[in-house]
């Protein structure tokens, strides 16, 4: 399940915004709660569990977002990042939220598709892509594939673009990435990680000024990421996937999954910022 496109994590790599999204989501899905065992199975069959695990890979980008290097935080950096982005803890958080928000109807609908032969093949390639740590190589390969499609006028590129929009619209991705960045940077500022304190108003203004560039970057990265991820999936199967993703029930599932994943990412980055302030600085890794 490609919920948060990995490009968004790489681009970074809200309490107000994300909690507002979750509040609206809960109001929209007042159906009966789903039991924990079925939710556990849901994480596995849809691949959402692996998507959550992949959030940990984005921790490597935290120092760069502050204009620093991992070596600036000494020998404790790796352990701190692994501790904060604990995969079991992130999955538990997701389960707690899903218990309160995901209806039985929506779970059944999404699980039925992803449990199908096509669904499981898609989950397999998505999981592999999520956990690929060499982002540069993946981006290079994806961009090369897109270039080849453009040269031969392949309509596959339109299907890939439709997939990226269906799972995570540009406006939602841009706002969420901005808020995750904001929460991390402000937490780092308040914790004393940065030499100079940041002004939230000025930072938001800067983000608004750069929004067009971010939108283009996310769109381009999402498309190349999709080209890489689904490189061995046929056009017919991708069209079938796109049609499944367009269904109203699946759209609601993805709205919820995106909200959950963005909130977990944002909260973990906030915690990481506080931990970074406690690390011994200047030691060699």
UniProtKB/TrEMBL annotation:
Residues 90-146 form the DUF2059 domain. It comes from the Bacteria. InterPro entries: DUF2059. This is DUF2059 domain-containing protein. It comes from Roseovarius pacificus.
